[in-house]
User: Which sequence fits this backbone?
């Protein structure tokens, strides 16, 4: 048994570790985040074309203004990978869309269907436009009704005439 209190213990370097293996480990660890964000492309160009066609109809839930085909977000890449896996499992395009809607809601579709739960989404912009136009019309009408001509008193007219006729002006 070694007495650590005396400080006479000698530590030998680990023979497996050297500078080369340490640098390899650091390089691999640094490269892992970049490797994981690269989408895995299908080897079959027909399958990849089908994946991209489907990906253009699905909204990226992170970016929200891009399809998963355009987005490089991790979630978009995961969804594309999931679409590839479902295609490889023999699922149809409608089955894949239905699965995505079931899991993420109608918002995942880039062109959601018109139904009761999406009426606000479809009718909201038109309703806001009509409200804005109505408010504008009411404001214009109120300003027209408020326009009254105010006439100057004789004293104000004389003072204005004097100011205009003065040589200092």
Assistant:
């Amino acid at each position: 048994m070694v007495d650590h209190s005396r400080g006479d213990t000698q530590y030998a370097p680990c023979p497996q570790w050297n500078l080369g293996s340490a640098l390899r480990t650091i390089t691999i660890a640094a490269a892992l985040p970049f490797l994981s964000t690269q989408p895995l492309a299908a080897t079959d160009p027909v399958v990849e074309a089908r994946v991209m066609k489907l990906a253009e109809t699905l909204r990226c839930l992170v970016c929200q203004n891009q399809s998963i085909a355009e987005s490089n977000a991790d979630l978009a890449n995961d969804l594309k990978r999931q679409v590839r896996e479902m295609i490889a499992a023999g699922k149809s395009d409608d089955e894949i869309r239905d699965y995505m809607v079931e899991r993420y809601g109608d918002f995942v579709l880039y062109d959601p269907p018109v139904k009761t739960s999406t009426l606000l989404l479809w009718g909201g912009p038109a309703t806001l436009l009509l409200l804005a136009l109505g408010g504008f019309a009411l404001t214009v009408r109120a300003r027209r009704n408020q326009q009254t001509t105010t006439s100057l008193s004789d004293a104000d007219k004389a003072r204005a005439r004097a100011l205009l006729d003065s040589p200092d002006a």
